[in-house]
Write a structure and sequence with these properties.
By secondary structure, the chain is an alpha/beta fold. 46% of the residues lie in helices and 11% in strands. It has ten helices and six strands; from the N terminus they run βαααααβαβαβαβαβα.
Length: 218
């Protein structure tokens, strides 16, 4: 039924959201911006780093985006010591590989950070294609990052299932022509279903290729 699977990264491959929130809070504090916990939630909506910077800091030059991005990256690496994979992910990837599915990542995150974390959790060799926010002009919910992943896999989007934890990511996957599974806790499931997810699970422990084929076939 499917020939490949495309995964968002933060909150789907790795449980990095807590480290992200701490890093953004520290970075913004370092440049004189105080934000509330509620205001920080925009960080979790799957946006590109430059879009988040502009959201909090207004119009910025290209040079400022690069420099502030570098500073935020360092804060993140300082916070990333305990980042781990989402529960059930390694076994799920093995299941997909046994079905000969090609695996890809399509993330709004920066390339250097994603490469850093993939190496940290020993998953670098598991993904045939990794497309990051640095490689596309438009971030999610625009489908560019998912379309580029499909192109690099050499597959049509309708042959791919997608996994994302943000409404903007689900919308991007759907706009690319992929069926999408949301990864989120029960309190956020409705948000992802409303965005177009076919199914939502808290992690990968309950998922398998055969189960997903049955869900998508309904």
């Amino acid at each position: 039924m499917f020939k490949g699977a495309v995964f968002d990264f933060d909150g789907v491959i790795v449980d990095s959201h807590p480290a992200h929130l701490r890093a953004w809070e520290k970075f913004l504090g370092s440049v004189g911006r105080t934000v509330s916990k509620d205001q920080l939630q925009v960080v979790l909506d799957g946006r590109k780093r430059e879009d988040i910077l502009r959201h909090f800091m207004g119009d910025l030059s290209a040079e400022q985006i690069v420099e502030y991005g570098r500073q935020k990256e360092q804060f993140f690496r300082d916070e990333a010591a305990h980042v781990r994979t989402i529960d059930g992910l390694p076994s799920f990837l093995e299941d997909l590989e046994c079905e000969h599915l090609a695996l890809a990542i399509a993330s709004s995150g920066g390339k250097s950070r994603i490469e850093f974390l993939l190496e940290k959790v020993a998953l670098t060799k598991r993904f045939r294609v990794v497309v990051t926010g640095d490689e596309v002009e438009q971030g999610k919910p625009h489908p560019a990052v998912f379309l580029k992943a499909a192109q690099q896999l050499g597959l049509d989007s309708c042959q791919l299932m997608a996994f994302d934890d943000a409404a903007s990511g689900v919308k991007a996957a759907k706009a690319a022509g992929m069926l999408c599974v949301g990864i989120a806790q029960p309190d956020r499931a409705t948000i992802l279903l409303d965005a177009g997810a076919t199914h939502v699970a808290p992690d990968f422990r309950s998922l398998s290729y055969s189960k997903l084929c049955a869900i998508f076939a309904q």
